[in-house]
Design goal:
Low-confidence stretches: none
Number of domains: 2
Strand order of the largest sheet: 5-4-3-6-7
Shape: elongated
Strand content: 5-15%
Oligomer: single chain
Number of strands: 7
Distance between the termini: 39 Å
Largest sheet: 5 strands, mixed
CATH architecture of the largest domain: 2-Layer Sandwich
Mean pLDDT: 91
Structural class: alpha/beta
Helix content: 40-55%
Order of helices and strands: EHHHEHHHEHHEHEEEHH
CATH class of the largest domain: Alpha Beta
Radius of gyration: 22 Å
Length: 280
């Protein structure tokens, strides 16, 4: 496995991530030197190149989990190096995605409308992968991997206890386009039906036949927290930047409320998805 396939680039603008990777690299170097191994010998023992060893120890590359596991065994670290995988895994995710995941982890209620795609929290891993590889200008392989992993990690919000109340509105046309092929779409539709059965989830479909639509100005996200505060975002408000101002939040909630009213009920939506699944 080449160095290019064995780690991720560090975002220089991510101060926390840079610090974590530098700390991990320094610990790896100190452990290696304490057992008297050269970088070349260490790389051979792990099955990686010497160049990658230097990049990781110098904080230039984010080590993959398997790298840390192998290093832990070779350096007889008794699990101390493997224990760094959780922090390193977080660095893999782009900072803006990590910040969003932090907010989602705090939210007690979410109102989510995406006019272009199945919402990220609802995407299967393969559907997410197909979407990311279709981006133009294209993401690098490294970026696709990082964004795909981050999208999957965000789904932990469904496993929280107590779980947040989640409201999704999907456009019918996004359930018709076979991105990645019919098989990918079929598994995505099956996943939507499975998620819709959760007590904390209300999933609604906006039919293409609707003559009035309050969501034409773009997507909407409103996250509410236990202390009564909230944060929202929409391309039509504040240029898409997150907002906490009560007036702007009311505008977003008003639009979302109208969108939900115009969409099919959860039961009707499930029936539509089942019908589409039968036709796929």
């Amino acid at each position: 496995m080449s160095a290019e396939d064995s780690g991720w680039e560090v975002d220089p603008d991510d101060e926390w991530g840079v610090a974590v990777v530098a700390t991990v690299g320094r610990q790896l170097r100190l452990r290696r030197e304490s057992v008297g191994m050269s970088a070349a010998e260490f790389g051979d023992a792990l099955g990686y190149g010497e160049d990658l060893v230097y990049k990781i120890e110098g904080g230039k590359r984010i080590p993959r989990p398997e790298y840390l596991d192998k290093a832990d065994g070779v350096l007889r670290a008794d699990g101390l190096l493997s224990a760094m995988k959780d922090d390193v895994a977080k660095v893999r995710y782009p900072k803006k995605v990590r910040d969003l995941a932090t907010l989602e982890a705090r939210a007690v209620e979410m109102q989510l409308y995406d006019p272009l795609n199945v919402h990220g929290l609802l995407q299967t891993p393969e559907y997410a992968w197909e979407l990311l590889t279709m981006r133009r200008p294209a993401y690098t392989q490294d970026e696709v991997e990082r964004y795909a992993a981050a999208r999957v990690a965000r789904k932990s919000v469904f496993d929280r206890d107590p779980a947040p109340e989640l409201s999704f509105v999907l456009e019918e046309w996004t359930l018709l386009r076979p991105l990645g092929g019919r098989g990918v779409l079929r598994r995505q539709l099956e996943h939507l039906l499975e998620v819709a059965q959760s007590r904390q989830v209300e999933l609604q479909v906006m039919p293409m036949s609707r003559e009035e639509h309050a969501g034409l100005a773009g997507g909407i996200e409103v996250l509410k927290f236990e202390d009564g505060t909230a944060v929202g975002r929409s391309p039509a408000v504040a240029g898409g930047r997150p907002v906490t101002d009560l007036r702007q939040l009311r505008i977003l909630e008003l639009r979302y409320r109208i969108i939900r009213t115009q969409a099919l009920t959860p039961g009707e939506s499930a029936a539509v998805i089942e019908q589409l699944l039968g036709e796929t």
